[in-house]
Design a protein that fits this description.
This protein has 485 residues and is mainly α. It has 19 helices and no strands. It has a domain of 196 residues.
């Protein structure tokens, strides 16, 4: 049996090996590093099914007061591994754009680092899934963020990418400051950084709630930046549009998933404070409304998916308000499948045409396969029945009703209608508009075609039979009643 921390160690070591190999193997085909990275992550993914059990919170000592391998952590470790594998597959198709955007004397310069850096991001995401102490949360969060600093502005000949990188750097550093300051206040009140011990202190001791509430609000500001919740979403449209498309997909799915699992863990000790419930409900409603309505006028598909990610953060926050780990986990899996499918098509079409919705005009005639896969991605994002996106919304709405959050369900159902409008704009362009006179057929590599086909099958399969995902989280997180007065 494998100790759980060995998974993260293996990912980091394999990333260092590939970086060193890339530095000394000047004539090697850099796409081979992507294949090697995918193979290494697949091996770690298989190893995740043979993990040794870890001490429970009541008996944890030493290292295990910082780290856990409960069902939620293991589920999101696998989620991070699968996400990184799919992003690397997308990065192979995006390689020609990297060559254009990276100044160098050799044709393949920069590709090795672009294929290797996601491994360090993946390791940070896996650590975040297991972090049960504020110190570990901070360290893992910074590992993820520093990797994204480089990836977002990787095509440094592109001024839009440089602008995106600077915005992400400045705002992320600001969010880190909020996180550290919030942790300081919480530690000052409770004398603990371990989440389980903080819960015990709040429940058994007469602590001052005012500074404690101030600290958790500061932490929520930092996590709100990571999950793109309103009003901390200002960086999303520009960064998503300017970053390389595979990095945008990674930010949209991997970073958001890790942020939500940390949010679920951090909120546990503080749900007994009624003010926390009111803040969460307000942020959720604002995120739903802003994300959906801001996406309506968008004509750039990357920017539309950026605002769409804000809207989906709102739906996920409904599950967080209801504190349903299963609903959040299922929605994140559905979001992974349909978002990465959409970005995979965006990369292929973007390499030959562009990122504007009008560039998809007549795609059904130029490439019926790509048009069909994008159709499945769009209708699943919109929430059409018999897709994973529909069941994801159903589960979060059901969890909210059980917790008597009827107002959020009403707002969520109304804003779903906005999603139908802006997602189906893409479908209309593909199937109802005529292609441009100079439009050419769009070709897809065998690896990308296989990946897209697998994502389409998974979207439909899990949209009809969600039980495998729900069983992966058994036993589920405890579901305390959130106090909202």
């Amino acid at each position: 049996m494998i100790p759980p921390p060995a998974l993260e160690i293996a990912v980091v070591v394999w990333g260092l090996v590939l970086l060193l190999a890339e530095a000394f193997m000047e004539r090697a085909n850099r796409r081979g590093f992507a294949i090697a990275a995918i193979a290494g992550l697949l091996a770690v993914l298989i190893a995740s099914f043979f993990l040794r059990t870890t001490p429970g919170p009541a008996t944890a000592t030493g290292f295990w007061t910082f780290y856990t391998a409960d069902p939620l952590a293991i589920f999101f470790k696998r989620f991070a591994l699968v996400t990184t594998i799919l992003v690397l597959v997308m990065a192979i198709d995006y390689a020609p754009m990297i060559r254009i955007g990276v100044p160098a004397a050799t044709p393949q310069a920069g590709l090795g680092e672009f294929f290797t850096l996601p491994l360090f991001t993946c390791a940070g995401l896996m650590w975040m899934a297991s972090a049960i102490d504020f110190i570990m949360i901070f360290v893992s969060l910074e590992l993820v963020t520093m990797s994204f600093y480089v990836l977002v502005s990787f095509t440094r000949r592109n001024p839009v990418a440089l602008e995106a990188g600077v915005k992400y750097l400045i705002l992320s550093a600001l969010a880190t400051g909020f996180l550290v300051y919030g942790i300081t206040w919480i530690f000052g009140v409770t004398g603990e950084t371990n989440l389980a011990r903080i819960t015990s202190v709040i429940a058994t001791q007469n602590v001052d709630h005012a500074p404690l509430l101030f600290g958790i609000v500061l932490v929520l500001v930092a996590l709100g930046f990571k999950i793109a919740a309103v009003p901390f979403q200002i960086w999303v449209p520009d960064v998503y549009q300017g970053a390389p498309t595979p990095v945008t997909a990674f930010l949209s799915v991997g970073s958001k998933a890790a942020g939500f699992v940390v949010l679920l863990r951090v909120l546990g000790p503080f749900l007994m404070l009624p003010e926390v419930g009111r803040v969460l409900v307000g942020v959720t409603a604002a995120t739903l409304i802003y994300g959906n309505f801001a996406a309506l006028p968008q004509s750039n598909l990357k920017r539309l998916l950026g605002y769409s990610s804000i809207a989906h953060a709102g739906y996920l926050l409904i599950g967080v308000v209801a504190f349903s780990g299963a609903a959040v986990a299922y929605y994140l899996v559905a979001y992974l499948l349909m978002t990465l499918l959409s970005f995979a098509v965006l990369i292929v079409v973007g390499n030959s045409a562009g990122d504007q919705i009008e560039d998809y005009a007549g795609l059904a005639k130029r490439s019926p396969f790509l048009a069909f896969t994008m159709l499945i991605g769009m209708i699943s994002l919109a929430g059409v029945p018999f897709t994973a996106g529909f069941l994801g919304k159903y589960f979060v709405f059901d969890a909210a009703i059980r917790q008597h959050q009827v107002a959020l369900v009403v707002i969520g159902v109304i804003t779903v209608g906005c999603g139908f409008y802006y997602y189906l704009k893409v479908v209309r362009a593909m199937y109802w508009l005529e292609p441009a006179a100079d439009a050419t057929p769009v070709h897809t590599s065998p690896l990308s075609r296989l990946t897209m086909s697998a994502l389409v099958i998974a979207i439909i399969f899990f949209g009809v039979y969600p039980q495998p995902i729900l069983n992966a989280l058994s036993p589920e997180l405890p579901v305390p009643r959130m106090v909202v007065r």
